[in-house]
Structures are given as structure tokens and as C-alpha cells.
Amino acid sequence: MIDENRPDGMPAEQVLAEIRELRALDRPTHGGRLFAYVYDPAVPGLDALATAAYAESAHVNGLDPTAFPSLLAMENTLVAAAARLLGGGPGTSAPDVVGSVTSGGTESLILAVKTARDARPDIAAPRIVVPASAHAAFAKAAHYLRVELDTVPVDPSTLRPAVAGVAAALRPETVLVACSAPSYAHGVVDPVEQIAEVAAAAGVRCHVDACFGGWTLPYLRRLGLPVPPFDLGVPGVTSISVDLHKYAYAPKGVSVLLHRDPQLRAPQYFAYADWPGYTMINPVISSTRSGGPIAAAYATVRHLGDDGYLELTRRTWAAVCTLTEAVRGADGLRLVAEPESTVVCFTATETGPDLFVLVDELAARGWHTQPQLSYAGLPPSVHLTVTAAVAPRAAEFGPDLADAVAAARAAGPVALPPELRALAGTLAPEGLTGDVVAGLAAGLGLGPGGGLPERMALVNTLLDAAPPALRERLLVEFVSLLQRPAW
After folding, report:
1. CA pair distance 286, 280, nearest whole angstrom
2. What is the torsional sign of CA 59, 43, 135, 466?
3. Range(s) for CATH 3.40.640.10 in the chain?
4. What is the DSSP letter of 288?
5. 108 secondary structure, DSSP code
6. What single string gives the DSSP state of each residue in 237-248?
7. Is the bond preceding residue 253 a cis peptide, omega within 30 degrees?
8. What digits encode the pLDDT tens for the residues 108-124?
9. 282: CB partners within 8 A, 6+ apart
10. Distance (Å, rounded) from C-alpha 409 to C-alpha 357?
């Protein structure tokens, strides 16, 4: 039990011991058995290098590049590296590309929307058009920035939006069209060329969300995979984002947002001089920014280099192929999409096991996957984000998957109590009172400061039975129960 009441402070080693004790509750961030949230290249010495670089610049403030030019130089180097990888720079069709380093993909996407909105002050009620498969950060951007979100359905077979559907969604108030390379949920690349052409014809900016795949798709193409055009080499693509803390394998959180030219980027900046303090000028959402993540990303990218990333991508694709064959060979499972990037996504057949029970069974065997709920006719699925660290362990996955499928079949599907199923189907989000949520949480093994139950199948089944608006409210209330002060 951690003692929070130490007004006299604590010895450093004791503080670190507490952190280690808490970290023991987490999913493993290394070892190739976690298929979401973290990206591990399994490169010896890389963690130590990134940590040392982080420490060198942790107390440097990115607020003022004239005071701390080291960060400006590192940011410019990272932007140039991303631009070269994504079709920009001297000798390309985007020679004047510029960019900014952000804290992550969500900030990059919010800024892409903000920039497009502010470029059109003549539009009183701006809108953006995105595929239904676009990352939820676009919805967050629309919510924060008071921009209307128009979503285009994806084909249930290809999992891509129809170009005609994107064209039909455009309005005079549309300021931005977005597409994914690839989509996070299923790992498929949208028809970027055709969508960008439609956007350009309408005089609308087109952003490519390559946060997830921008650092692997170019290398997969070099390895011989048929990667379609998706970057700044595509006419009509006005901006693109890529996360360095994903497949560039930098520590959290660093992303890069690129614009085709400085004029397109100009509305991204915020400046304010109408007060007695310093004139504020920010290219990104944050003002004060620690230089630690930027320096760690700089060190990682410089150390691994182009050849290093090509080799890491080769290992990753080999792991993707091994996992894909494991899914194909598993009784009662099928691929949602043929892998074309670093995602393996599968679901159950009509006679297959309960997917949410299967996820728990895989976790019991040390494999931590990401369940995805059903949506608009698409079945629930299991998402595997594959990294280079998975390669040495990939052959172990097939036998464990087969064993987990057998165990899930033996356990049978989760049966929601009738009252819970009725609640999920009929309760309006606004009807969720504190007492209702507390009762639900207790029944599901959730509670104030109590963490999560070891098995999540019942929770996921309840969420899957609820419509999206109720899912959102349930999760907000559940997380609110978990996030309470430790008195």
C-alpha cells in the first residue's frame, strides 16, 4: 500500500520504488505481446539513447525558439525527415513543404482542421468531410473547434469510402476533406488520389491522416508491396500528418504536421500582442513545451536512419504475414481485411467463438489485443497493431490463438443479464443517473479507485449492445468513476 501522507517528503529511491510498484500493474510495453498503444522496435540500446536525449532537453522550453535554438534545429530536422519520406522537399512536387512538431496525432489533426477553418473566415459555419473510418480525433477537432462533421460511410467489403460519396458530401461550407493512410481500425489505405482530386476540383483542402502509417508505407513500397499513392506526391493533398512515436519508434509524444507550402500553414499560427506581457506566438496548441520528447525523437530518428527503418519494416511485415496465417488457420475466425500495412484485423465467423471471450483468453496467455465494437453493420473485431518487436514472438501466436479459440468455445458466449440487455437497448444517454451508473459499475467489477476486472468480456458485451451515443456516455461515466483522488 502506498503511503500518500508524507509532508516531509520521501527519499528518491523510495519514490522510484513506488513507481515501479505501480508500473507492475501495467500491460508490458516491451516483448512483442502488446498489440496496441505502444510501439517497440526491440533495438538494443535505443531506450537508453532516447532516455538520455530526453534528459538533456527535458527542462528546455519550446515556447521561444530564440531562447532555445537547439529545439528549433531539432524540430526542423524532424520536419525535413518526415517531408523527405512523404514526398516533399527539393526536387519534388512539394519543394516548399513546411511543418510543425506536435505532441501527437490528435494535436496534428486538430491543427489541420483549425488551419483549414481559419483559412476561410468567410464561412460562418464551416464543415469537414471524413470517412466513417477516420480517426476519432477528427470528431474531437470538430467538437473543440465548433466545426460540423460530415461522415461518409465505408463499403463493408473494402472498408473504404466511395469517392462518389465523398463528392456528394461536399457543400459550399466544406473547408477540409480528410482520408486515412491507413485507417487505424482496419489498416486499409483510402483512395487518396481520387479523394484529393475531388477536393481540389471543389477548391477544398485535403488532409491525409498518415499518423499511423506514414513512417511504414514508404518502406513497405520499397519492399515491393503495392502501396497506392497517398502522400505529398499526390496533387491536391495540401497537408499530411505522421506520428514519430508510432513507427518512427520515438518515445511519446511526437508527431509532425506537414503543409505543402508556407501560405497553407499560415493560419495554423496563433499570435496575441494585445496585453502587457510578451507577445505570444504559437505554431501548435501548447505554449510551454518540454524539449524532452523532441530531443528523444531526434536521437531516435538520427540513430536508426533510413536503412534501420527499412529493416524494421521488413521485420514487421514478416510478423504481419505470420500472424495473418495464424488467423487463417484458426477455426471460426476470418480476416476483416487482407493486411496491406501493419494491422491484422479479424472477426469471428457465424459459428465462431465469442470474440470478447477470446480477447480475455488471449490476455490470459500473455497476448494483449484490442477489441473493437460493432459499428454500422460492421461486426466486432480484434485489432492487432504489429511492430518489429512482434517478429521474434510471432510464431508463438498461432498455437496460443488456437488454444484460446478452443477455450472461448468451451466457455461459451457472454450472456448479459436480461435487465442489462434491456437497459443497453432502451436507455437514453441522458437517463444515466449517478445511481444507475454506480450500480452498473459494481455489477461489472468497476468501482472508485478499484481499477478494472481481470476479464473484460462482460463489459465489452454490454458496450457492444449499446448504440454509440450510449456507449460514449457509459464510458465517460465509468472512466469518471476510476479517475478519483487517492485520499
Report:
1. 11
2. negative
3. 55-300
4. S
5. H
6. --EEEEETTTTT
7. yes
8. 999 999 999 999 999 99
9. 63, 269, 270, 271
10. 9
User: What is the rounded average pLDDT of the residues 345-356?
Assistant: 97
* 305-411 belongs to CATH 3.90.1150.10: yes
**Whole-number pLDDT of residue 466:** 87
Segment 262-271 shows an average pLDDT of 98
Task: Check if the beta carbon of residue 326 is closer than 8 Å to that of residue 395.
Answer: no
Of 255, 210, 211, 219, which Cα lies nearest the Cα of 237?
210
Residue reference for cell 468513476: 481
What are the start and end residues of each CATH 3.90.1150.10 domain in the chain? 305-411
- Mean pLDDT over residues 406-414, rounded? 95
What 166-172 contacts at long range (C-beta under 8 Å, 24+ apart), as own/partner pairs, is 166/129, 166/131, 166/195, 166/198, 166/199, 167/198, 167/202, 169/129, 170/129, 170/198, 170/199, 170/202, 170/204, 171/127, 172/123
The chain-wide mean pLDDT, for the chain, equals 93
58, three cell numbers: 527535458
Q: Are 381 and 337 in contact (CB under 8 A)?
A: no
* Band of pLDDT at residue 447, cut at 50, 70 and 90: low
Return the number of other C-beta atoms located less than 10 Å from residue 364's C-beta. 14
- For the chain, give the percent of residues with pLDDT over 90: 83
pTM: 0.95
Task: Cell numbers for 211, please give them.
Answer: 499518423
Residue 1, pLDDT score: 47
Judged against a pLDDT cut of 90, whether residue 409 lies above it is answered with: yes
Which is higher by pLDDT, 377 or 478?
A: 377
SS3 289: coil
Take residue 193 and report the three cell numbers written for it: 488520389
Overall CATH class of domain 55-300: alpha beta
